[in-house]
Amino acid sequence: MSDYIVSARKYRPQTFESVVGQGAIAATLKNAIRAGKLAHAYLFCGPRGVGKTTCARIFAKTINCMNLHEDGEACNECESCQAFNEGRSLNIHELDAASNNSVDDIRALIEQVRIPPQIGRYKVFIIDEVHMLSTAAFNAFLKTLEEPPAHAVFILATTEKHKILPTILSRCQIYDFQRMSVENTIKHLQYVAEREGYTYEPAALNVIAQKADGGMRDALSIFDQVVSFSGGNITYQQVIQNLNVLDYDYYFRLVDLMHEHRVTDCMLLFNEVLTKGFEGGPFVSGLASHLRDVLVARDPQTAALLEVSDDIRQRYVEQAARCKPTWLYSAIRLCNACDQNYRTSRNKRLQVEIMLIECAQLDEDGVGAGRRPARHLLPIFSLLTADGQAAAVGTPVVPQQTGASATAQPIAQNPTANTASATPSATAATHPSVGPVPAETTQQRKTIKFGSIGGPTLRHQSAKSGSTTVQAGIANAQPTGGNSDATTSSVQSATTQVNRPLEQSEVLVSWQRFINSMPREETAFAQRMRIMQPKITGEGVLEVVVENEEVEKRLSAIVPRITEFLRQDLSNSSLTITLRVTEHTVEVQRFDKRQQLRHFCDMNPALIELGKAFKLELV
Ligand SMILES: [Zn+2]
271 lies in a domain? Predict the structure, then answer.
């Protein structure tokens, strides 16, 4: 027990040559020593356990060696080297700044710096975790660091370079230590295992190296832990059991199950993972990294990025061959979404299970069975006013015309439309396109029901008949009732010259403009007004449909203001506004989703086919 030395100490490298994974830094330091060009301060930065202190010690030993080898390595035989190796050298001073960070600690160190070495040429001061020094200590140290005696060399080590003051940085030669690659870590573990006479499975060392995440000291501590647990026979099973690591095998199986749409088996597998004591969170992130690895394994070039042993790499390559990239993207996306929601979720298990179900329902190309179709927001309010038959307002400009004409029917009974019906025959005569209704119009009326499609069709027609869009509007309105012929532009030209004819689109713009000009205290009502759509129902007559008497009362209070505004804005001095409470609010019911879907299916039977193809539950 007493002579047990942990592997991290026992196998701490003694020469630059044996330093693992920091070849470039070791070579640079060796060259500097050989050339006799030593700086008086070095800063070693990098994550923990990658060899900063080790390199600092080797450096200290080497510059003091009395028979330096030609390649720049210490001889390990001379008096100085032996003193270093036995840990009794007086030429090396280590200060852990994490626990000794006061000004007094630094002052004590500075005292030491003044005394020249008894044996050897240099005194080396290693300050570990130098970023932990207090600002006062830093400042006390600064002077010495700048002008140290010729025999002093400082080596500062830190895991957090960004915390080092620029004044310190500028006085040091900086070396950045890299994280250990999994490959290097494995090699070193193999070396240690062979020296100690342990047997091992490569996959087991792989798991240890991955768990250590780039730190050799961590890797060796885990290694020691596993060795004591397994009695020198390091197997994969023992390692994952001891380290509480989830077996690769689960993920391989899970992805295969998902790919075969075996939802139940996925759920059972997840349950098995939970009963083994694993948490859902690490499971999900593990699945995401597994999927990433499968994606990476698709390409022989990127497969090299996988930091796994060869037999497992082969499994990745095989699984990758079965999965399309699009499937993998979708699955990764679902995993990520689940990962993000996991922490905030109250029912964490459900979160994961839903993700598993969704993944298992992805088809070959990664299209989800449960994916909702893209949502188009229908203009709800025009739907209401147009009695469900004409959701007119799709594109903002042209369909407004149709909107006006489509609502013509209820207006026919309305006394306010009187002026409009004044000159119907005249209009019909002056515009030949109005008389014979083109065959297209009936089709159009179908399409107009879903206003967004109506826009382009209308424009197309007007171009064909060589008349303006307004006329197209009239032609379109023809079957609904005669009075709508009286849409402004035609009438306008016959009767008044002073007032500019009203244009539905301009009216709407002007209406919004008025709302924008409303004072702040009317904001709430202004919002209400935004969804109202005044419609031209006759010459200079706008009709606003409101939902109830209450709104009518409030609106009528400001109608004079609106009229004034619109008259100016639209250059039409005879413009008047009438209000009408909609009659449909009671009988018009909103479509529920099922009805909407049924309607869409009637419109386009291919939808049903689509539903079947994607195994959707439609109506
Ligand atoms: Zn030596």
Answer: yes
From the CA of 122, how far away is ligand 1's center (Å)? Answer: 13
Residue 524 falls inside a structural domain: yes
| 336-388 tens-digit pLDDT | 999 998 988 889 899 999 999 989 888 877 776 544 444 444 454 544 444 44
Helix axis angle, 451-465 to 439-448, nearest 10°: 160
What spacing in Å lies between the alpha carbon of 149 and ligand 1's midpoint?
A: 23
Containing structural domain, residue 253:
248-361
Tell me the C-alpha distance between 429 and 433, whole Å.
Answer: 9
Cβ atoms of 233 and 196 within 8 Å: the answer is no
Instruction: Lay out the sheet containing 535-538: strands in order across.
Output: 535-538, 541-546, 576-581
**598 Cα to the center of ligand 1, angstroms:** 90
Is the domain of 236 the same as that of 269? no
158 lies in some domain? yes
Report how far ligand 1's centroid is from the alpha carbon of 74 (Å).
5
Compute the distance from residue 180 Cα to the ligand 1 centre, in Å.
28
Ligand 1 mean position, distance from CA 84 (Å): 9
Q: Give me the numbers of helices (H) and strands (E) for the chain, helices first please.
A: 31, 10
- Token pair 């190296």 is found at 209
* Residue where a domain terminates, one of 242, 259, 278: 242
Q: 66: CA distance to ligand 1 center in Å?
A: 5
* CA 75 – ligand 1 centroid, Å: 4
- Token digits of residue 418: 């009187």
Q: Which two tokens stand for residue 125?
A: 């001061």
Q: How far is the CA of 59 from the centre of ligand 1 (A)?
A: 12
Single pTM value for the model: 0.53
Question: What is the whole-number distance in angstroms between the Cα of residue 120 and the centre of ligand 1?
Answer: 10
**Ligand 1 center–CA 92 separation, angstroms:** 15
Instruction: Determine which helix (DSSP H) or strand (DSSP E) holds 35, and give its type and residue range.
Output: helix 23-35
How many angstroms does the Cα of residue 58 sit away from the middle of ligand 1? 11
Among residues 547, 544, 540, the alpha carbon closest in space to that of 559 is found at 544
* Residue 218 CA to ligand 1 centre (angstroms): 30
Looking at residue 233, which CATH number applies to its domain?
Answer: 1.10.8.60
Could you tell me if 537 and 406 are in contact, meaning their C-beta atoms sit under 8 angstroms apart? no
- Count the residues in the chain: 619
Place of tokens 């700048």: 146
If one counts every other C-beta atom within 10 angstroms of the C-beta of residue 213, the result is: 14
CA 156 to ligand 1 center in whole angstroms = 24
Under 8 Å between Cβ of 437 and 475: yes
409-458 confidence digits (pLDDT tens): 444 444 444 444 444 444 444 444 444 444 444 444 443 344 344 334 34
